[in-house]
Amino acid sequence: MKVQAIKTTLRKIRAFRSLFLQESNFQFVYNKCHAYGWADTYLFTLDGTAVGYGAIWGQNNRSDRDAIFEFYVVKPYRKFAGECFLKLWEASGAVCVECQSNDVLLTAMLYQYSKNINAENLLFDDHFQTQIILPGISFHQQEAKENDRRDEFKYYLKQEDEDEEVVVATGGLMLNYNEPFADLYMEVKDGFRKQGLGSFMIQELKKACYLMGRVPGARCNIDNAASKATLLKAGMKVCGYILIGKL
Questions:
Q1: What 8-state DSSP symbol labels residue 53?
Q2: DSSP string for 85-101
Q3: What is this structure's pTM?
Q4: How do residues 37-62 score in pLDDT, each as one tens digit?
Q5: Residue from 31, 32, 52, 28 nearest 42 by CA
């Protein structure tokens, strides 16, 4: 059986991408790479029959194409996944694999064909709803400005006292991920940290996310203990890792 990896367009692998995202059913943090033109795609064929696809992007420089980040073979032909991966590696000239550990198929290829594997980021999904209350702290949506992104919604926490109102934390939702998922982010201002504001912000962002019909997700650097603790306290749980391995 002849296996090929042929460079192609996003349109020609769109149906396979739909299957990949449906089967995965998690926030795919690389989804935006296609919309932003950061990726090259390859179609896998077995004796001329299209059976899947792979995608490459630049791990550090978005103009490069050195990292395999997306890989899918339809179930009836999945026993040929190894052959498809090797052809993708050969055709693309990739030097590494970058993937989510909850992406089972590409993670299997990572462990089989790469070395020096390291975890870079923690991935989080929602686990339970919290009831954090901080007296004097209120959650607000920032008014959109003319040049703001349409796929981003910004929020802030305000501390109210007798003298003044102070913005103590900011955060938001990014919607440039596969539906129905959204990415949460937040930052507590200097001088107001270690007071539970970060977890309160995430709690309220989760509510806003669900009210939009989206499912919250988040991530942080694996060495960022403060962010990890904040997300866990706000009812998130670790659901995977960003893994990188050298081919």
A1: E
A2: HHHHHHHH---EEEEET
A3: 0.92
A4: 999 999 999 999 999 999 999 988 88
A5: 52
